[in-house]
């Protein structure tokens, strides 16, 4: 099967030097990331570094086929080129579009509608999901409705993040809709199982090497968590994903200011953000633009913990136990589908003795049931791909 893969990319997007027609030219190196300007540029390439796991999972699921990744921005920039789209329609049998929470009021999929109107091959939308349930149908922008209309009248396949998205798309008249979960869940299944088995351990509540994730710069939740779980001499490690562009975590200084140590994945420059003054212990801010480096670093942690889905999934991909705090409908849909243990943010935030609560929660986890559910979801994902022919 000749597959055109586009949409959310893997971290290998960082090596793309140019695209000519449908030929993607890769450089044999990554750009240097030390200065503030370069650091911010790398984050903006993906918007959220956790998204790299989605593109990586989608690409991995297509192994064994003739797959070409073409950046979506290239298809957008050349949507007036009939020659490029005629070539694509000749050279590929199917298009796989790696997506995420595309169904949300704040995003209008006008460009997606235009691109897929010109691609005449079957389309697989992999990993599509919602941001929140409330008012979804009434608040979807016109561009997103147009995108759905284009694919409704085509041979299209929707692989959703969960059940709610699947039901919504069926209500919109989509014919092939299967809840499969995010493709990042199936990148390293053996390690995911190892992570789930290790999570059912109350002693993790006393862990001192934790990879934290959340929304630093917006709320103080992660700082509160670190103080509750770590001893006064432990270093709090917080992994930055999109905070520097979405949540007001600022890096003072001019564009040339050194702010990042790539070898350690550590932000070394000064930072400014809301609630920073609440820190009462040593802490470090970590960021990764290479998912392999990120996974390797997590193996030095006893646990991943926090409010970021992919910030925990990458730990699970390395076999490290991870526990998520569900903060919105997007996370709940994904977690409820895959059956991973999680804690509701409202419940966790009001707990006075968080360490004791965490220990008790971990002691109730049925690891075998979680693994059985995960294995069934993985088999379902592979089966659905087989139904499509990929």
UniProtKB/TrEMBL annotation:
Keyword Transferase: yes
Entry GO MF terms: transferase activity
Pfam families from the UniProt entry: PS_pyruv_trans
Alphabetized UniProt keyword annotations: Transferase
Highest rank taxon of the organism: Bacteria
Record-linked InterPro entries: Polysacch_pyruvyl_Trfase (IPR007345)
All copies of domain Polysaccharide pyruvyl transferase, residue ranges: 48-328
Entry protein name: Polysaccharide pyruvyl transferase family protein
Source species taxonomy: Bacteria, Pseudomonadati, Pseudomonadota, Alphaproteobacteria, Hyphomicrobiales
